[in-house]
Design a protein that fits this description.
The chain is an alpha/beta fold. The protein has one domain: Rossmann fold. Helix content is 25%, strand content 15%. The chain has helices spanning 32-39, 66-75, 86-92, 106-109, 145-155, and strands at residues 2-5, 45-48, 60-61, 78-82, 97-101, 115-118.
Length: 158
């Protein structure tokens, strides 16, 4: 099972999970729907989500209970997430995964045990502590679906 965590969980107008009508958070990978199609060719995909998160697969676990998350983390073969709390949580279980970075810096926020994907350093925010302000989600800042799938296959030795 591949566990995905597509949306950020931080509070705030630009850092909440996207809704069907709302804008995507600047950190959110804009190609999740295409990615899920490819991941489902590899293994079952389970989504970890909050109440307002868009369901990308049939099996959506809307929980942030540490016990439930620990169970999912131990059961999954690997996980895919944006730069959020999941990579830090997974590290506790020594579970490697793929982190998709866009405007945030993997040299600051990435963990060395994961595959940290960044399209190009030119897209990294110059000041990682600056307020998000009116930044918008820019698909140009993110790696392609093929790059993420290749990283997952690398983790799974496929």
């Amino acid at each position: 099972m591949i566990l995905i965590h597509p949306y950020p969980v931080e509070p705030g107008p630009l850092t909440t999970a996207p809704t069907f009508n709302g804008p995507l958070n600047p950190k959110t990978y804009p190609f999740w729907e295409d990615l899920v199609i490819e991941l489902q060719k590899i293994d079952t995909v389970v989504q970890l989500a909050r109440g307002g998160d868009k369901a990308l697969v049939d099996d959506v676990r809307r929980t942030y209970s540490p016990v439930d998350m620990a169970q999912l983390m131990t059961e999954c073969s690997c996980w895919v997430s944006i730069d959020t709390f999941i990579p830090k949580f997974a590290q506790y279980f020594n579970k490697r995964g793929v982190v998709i970075f866009g405007p945030t810096d993997p040299l600051i926020f990435g963990l060395p045990n994961n595959i940290n994907l960044l399209k190009d350093r030119i897209y990294v925010r110059p000041d990682p502590d600056a307020p998000w302000g009116d930044e918008v989600n820019d698909p140009e800042k993110f790696v392609s679906v093929d790059v993420v799938v290749a990283a997952v296959k690398e983790l799974l030795n496929i």
